Amino acid sequence: MPHALSTPNRLRLMKITGRDGVLASQHLLEAIDEGVITGGGYTIPPQNVQPASLDLRLGETAYRVQCSFLPGAHQVERKLKDLIIDEFDLHKEGIVLEPMRPYLIPLKERLELPEYISARANPKSSTGRLDVFTRVITDGSYQFDDIRAGYVGGLYLEVVPLSFPIRVKEGLALNQLRLSVGQPTMRDEEIQAIHQETPILFTGDGVPFSKEDLPLDNGLFLSLDLQGGRSRRVGYRARDTAPLLDMTKTSREDPDRYWEPVNSEGDHIILKQERFYLLMSNEAVAIPPGIASEMTAYDPTNGELRTHYAGFFDPGFGYDQAETFHGSKAALEVRAHDVSFMIDHGQRVCKLTFEKMLEPPLMLYGYSGRSSYQQQLGPLGKHFSQPAAVPTAPEAAIVPAVRDENQLELPIDAD
Predict the structure, then answer these.
(1) E-assigned strands of 32-172?
(2) What is d(CA 109, CA 54) in angstroms, rounded to the nearest whole number?
């Protein structure tokens, strides 16, 4: 049963009751300290705490399963036992996950959510860019990734590599968790007001969109850059056959072994059926400290097209209070289903929704300079060799308004 609100180890988090917003890094640290989030007998590394999310780690065992499933009214392990094909030990060197096969991996983290805190999971950006499909399931749930308020129990990650065989091991983080209270979703009018004060969306040339031109409709639309500048290169397509990709290593792989370059075909490209593409947004995005964002799935009524697999944008993505740069472009993971699909330069393909933060986080995305995708020049993930990024702004220029010298400053690598 969930802890009552009066339980002593919930006193600090009680201050957020009756409010609406996403828990910031300082709240996540409190949640860990108070046992709302535990490591199942393992310490949660401080570097796993991001500005508005927490990295979740793979546990000791992986199960290859017959098919994907939801537990419904049952516990996950009750349904899992009838679907197990094989069991693997994730210790030491880990294991290879084969493409197009579903695996279920219990995560190290467990939740004891108070009745006023809910959660949502999403793949990490580097996971999505490798075409690794992940989603979290919990006991007694009828849906993926959404975790009800008051949930007490374990977390299980479904993992399906779609393009490449991958190596994983215990402790590797493939996805993230975001906690919130109340109804933090922002209306278009609120987004517009923030944009007028602190621009959220820029053209590719770094010019803020005007109030009238801001593409809002229950969120902020993004389109594709299919011109590619002088090189005409607009992105990459996963090769039909590729070698093993070891996600447990930090070495940069030769992208030519895994990706084919995609060039503009005269302000458009044709997506081949069921092939995976990495493309870039035509616009640049900046997420200021007081809000968080999530990229939402493309509406299938506009074409059989999926435009993302990883969706969280933490506060600070593309943001620089010193204005030495203006936004970062978003990498889009795209796949056309059923039939090949032509998309044009500037065509809207996805949407960002926004949520209020309970408080600005005490660190922002890219604050330490370790984030791989701040001011990213291309869509390839951190596992591949690529052009060096432009240096980020000096630390002191980023979050002086929310820095607290008594708080722990954590290294950030939210990718």
Answers:
(1) 37-38, 54-57, 61-65, 84-89, 95-97, 103-112, 118-123, 132-137, 146-147, 152-161, 166-168
(2) 10
344 pLDDT more than 50? yes
The half-sphere exposure of 159 on its side-chain side, counting CA atoms within 13 A, is 33
Distances (CA, A) of 16 to 111, 114, 180, 333: 18, 11, 10, 35
Token code pair at residue 191: 């987004």
Q: Which residue has the tokens 């009066």?
A: 6
Q: What is the pLDDT of residues 209-254, one digit of tens each?
A: 998 999 999 999 999 999 988 889 999 999 999 999 999 987 789 9
Cα–Cα nearest to 101, from 73, 140, 133, 71: 133
pLDDT digits (tens, 9 = 90+) for 11-49: 577 777 778 999 999 999 999 999 999 998 889 999 999
242 CB-contact burial (10 Å; exposed 0-12 / middle 13-18 / buried 19+): middle
3-state SS class at 47: helix
